[in-house]
Design a protein that fits this description.
With 341 residues, the chain is mainly beta. The chain has 4 domains: 61 residues, no CATH class; 77 residues, Immunoglobulin-like (Sandwich), CATH 2.60.40; 76 residues, Immunoglobulins (Immunoglobulin-like, Sandwich); 74 residues, Sandwich (Immunoglobulin-like), CATH 2.60.40. It has 2 helices and 24 strands. The strands form 7 sheets. A 5-stranded mixed sheet has the order 4-10-9-6-7, with no helix packed on it. It has a 4-stranded antiparallel sheet with strand order 14-13-16-17, with no helix packed on it. A hairpin with a 5-residue loop joins β16 and β17. It is elongated and about 175 Å long. The chain starts with 8 loop residues before the first strand and ends with a strand.
């Protein structure tokens, strides 16, 4: 009996099935190798090297993004963005106005410029000063001002010259002279608290005297002005003002000319350094007319005396020969005399 064709089996599979399976594995392996090689290939350097997968619209978009020839255009490169540098400060003066007038002497010219710039001040062909601005562009230039019109040209690197015109007042010869400005001489004054005002050199000490008595001192301020309060008893009084630095002296008569003269407080007897004997001692002196004089010896009260119309007074007291200190007081005034016995 004839038999039909037979097929050999391998592990329960026919030979055709085994061959088909091997072919399938080969195809899969080849596909995997191709995929790995595709992923590992270098990126194309030019737009023309883009593969066929980049067709139509995709290629056009790529060309627009990278420039017409496929390269990155300059305007599309990522360059760092920085803020524009601030314009340097112009050369300027900040403390001189158009109509300003200045006093002769030391003066500091101030202004602005580019930071760390060197500023020169020229007067004609002469340089009168030079200064360097700080890191913020501020500068200060010391000058010596002279009376008259002062024209300067300020220069700085890379900047046009800046003209500066300053009007300097003439020196006042009267300023700083010793004088009493208030009250005026010869004006009738009422008794009471009075403030003297005057002028002298700045910082100068002015001594005020009434007869031989020193009333006090006043110091002139930076503008040469001084003031001194005093008690005025009325009538007429002659004051002497002495500048202790220059020894300049000015005498002024206060009060109206027809007013009764004011007699200052004084102890005329005994005199300083006198040697007295035990017994009755008559104290004598002067004081403003009608005023009451209080007298003490070594701190012990001796009594009171009243000045007459001529301003004279006296008081008799017992005395024991011994070193003594006599004090006479009238109002706020006080005088002292010391004796040997």
């Amino acid at each position: 009996m004839s038999q039909g064709p037979t097929q050999t089996t391998v592990r329960g599979r026919t030979r055709d099935q085994v061959m088909a399976y091997d072919v399938f594995k080969g195809i899969v392996a080849a596909g995997l190798v191709g995929l790995v090689l595709f992923l590992m290939r270098p990126a194309p350097a030019h737009g023309d090297d883009h593969g066929g997968d980049h067709g139509g619209e995709k290629h056009a978009v790529s060309a627009d993004a990278h420039g017409s020839d496929g390269h990155d255009s300059e305007e599309h490169k990522d360059t760092p963005k920085t803020s524009p540098a601030p314009a340097p400060a112009a050369l300027a003066v900040t403390n001189v106005g158009a109509e300003a007038s200045f006093k002769p002497g030391d003066f500091t010219l101030r202004g602005t410029s580019p930071a760390l710039a060197t500023i020169k001040a020229m007067r004609g062909e002469d340089m009168v000063g030079e200064v360097q601005a700080d890191d913020k562009g501020n500068w200060a230039l010391p000058l010596k001002l002279e009376p008259g019109r002062m024209e300067l040209n300020l220069t700085s690197e890379g900047a046009p010259a800046l003209p500066v015109v300053m009007t300097v007042a003439e020196a006042d010869d009267a300023a700083g002279a010793l004088a009493l400005t208030e009250p005026r001489a010869g004006v009738d004054l009422k008794a009471g608290r009075l403030t003297l005002r005057g002028t002298a050199q700045a910082g100068e000490l002015v001594q005020i005297r009434q007869g031989d008595r020193i009333l006090g001192e006043a110091k002139a301020d930076a503008e040469g002005k001084w003031s001194f309060p005093m008690d005025f008893t009325g009538g007429q009084s002659e004051l002497t003002f002495v500048s202790l630095g220059s020894n300049e002296t000015v005498q002024v008569r206060l009060g109206a000319a027809d007013a009764k003269a004011v007699v200052p407080l004084a102890l005329t007897n005994p005199t300083s350094g006198a040697s007295l004997v035990s017994g009755t001692l008559t104290l004598r002196g002067t004081a403003p007319a009608g005023s009451t004089v209080r007298l003490t010896r070594n701190g012990q009260a001796l009594g009171e005396a009243k000045a007459d119309e001529a301003g004279k007074w006296e008081l008799a007291v017992p005395h024991r020969a011994a070193p003594s200190v006599f004090v006479a007081e009238a109002g706020r005034e006080r005088v002292t005399v010391s004796t040997r016995r």
